[in-house]
From TrEMBL:
Source organism, top-level taxon: Eukaryota
Protein name (Swiss-Prot/TrEMBL): Uncharacterized protein
InterPro entries: Giardin_beta-like
UniProt xrefs under PANTHER family: CHROMOSOME UNDETERMINED SCAFFOLD_148, WHOLE GENOME SHOTGUN SEQUENCE, KDE4
Length: 309
């Protein structure tokens, strides 16, 4: 029986009504039970927070208490018809108002949590997009560097082929010049030999003195020829030596140019490798920083969720 039924029973009670002892005791026990239930309900809402009430769905478990014997009370009309008591709102409406306030606070907290989780989700999505963009940029940079290295290798191969072709052409020109000079010298020697033989034949046909003088002239001519031949041979050796020196110098210049080109290529390769390694190290550092920030964000989210709960 609730409080309204008990009050209705009290309103029907008057000092002039004839109640036996049992009916009077039952009425007093109902009023006391209602007061005990109200105190238990108030203590439940006082000790349990709105979040615990909303999340755990606690239920009130009440056990009836034994009622000690009390003397008979006499309720007067003034007590039952007090204007101040009639103006006081019923306990049920107070409890419903408190429950509604608790539900409003719980709904507000849930809305705040949803907004916070949505913001964290958006932040994580933006971080994921940033990491994906960084990976795509790294792949594009690697592809670009690979193409540049291949292009540099192709250009170096073309330059080496051109240098080899120029060297072969230079060697062919030098060989051709040497062959032409040797052929001209051989022709001169052949002409000189022919002239000498004709002169000897003509001198042998002359008189004895002329033959002697011619013999002397021939000896002189032979000596001169030998000197000329020696001089020609010396000049030829000098020319050949000069050509050898020129060839050696060209070969040395070519080797120096080749070494310079190889060194330049190696330096370029080392510089490109160092730049690539530095870019890779920077990207790894950026990835580690992003992962560290992501872990810190996850830890903050977890701590926020735990603190909210």
């Amino acid at each position: 029986m609730n409080t309204s039924s008990a009050r209705q029973s009290h309103n029907n009670y008057s000092p002039n009504s004839y109640l036996n002892r049992n009916q009077h005791s039952q009425l007093i026990q109902q009023i006391n039970n209602n007061s005990v239930n109200n105190e238990t309900h108030n203590s439940f809402y006082r000790d349990v927070s709105p979040s615990e009430y909303g999340y755990h769905n606690l239920q009130q478990q009440q056990q009836p208490r034994p009622i000690p014997f009390q003397p008979t009370r006499v309720f007067t009309d003034n007590y039952l018809e007090d204007p101040a008591r009639d103006k006081t709102p019923p306990k049920k409406q107070q409890y419903e108002h408190r429950i509604k306030q608790a539900e409003d606070r719980i709904s507000h907290m849930l809305a705040q949590d949803d907004a916070h989780f949505k913001q964290l989700k958006d932040s994580l999505a933006k971080m994921g997009e940033g990491v994906q963009g960084e990976q795509m940029a790294r792949e594009l940079l690697d592809e670009k560097k690979t193409k540049e290295i291949k292009l540099a290798e192709n250009n170096m191969n073309i330059e080496l082929n051109i240098e080899k072709q120029n060297r072969r052409e230079s060697e062919a020109k030098i060989s051709k010049i040497i062959d032409e000079r040797l052929y001209a010298i051989r022709l001169d020697l052949a002409k000189e030999k022919k002239i000498r033989e004709e002169a000897q034949d003509h001198n042998y046909a002359s008189f004895g003195d002329q033959i002697r003088r011619l013999q002397e002239d021939i000896e002189l001519e032979a000596h001169l020829r030998e000197e000329n031949s020696q001089r020609f041979i010396t000049q030829l050796g000098d020319e050949i030596g000069k050509f050898h020196d020129m060839i050696s110098q060209e070969r040395r210049i070519r080797e120096d140019n080749h070494n310079i080109m190889v060194k330049t290529i190696q330096d370029t390769h080392q510089r490109v490798v160092m730049e690539l390694n530095r870019d890779i190290a920077e990207r790894r550092q950026n990835e580690e920083n992003l992962l560290h920030l992501l872990e810190e964000t996850c830890l903050r989210v977890e701590r926020t969720v735990l603190s909210g709960n």
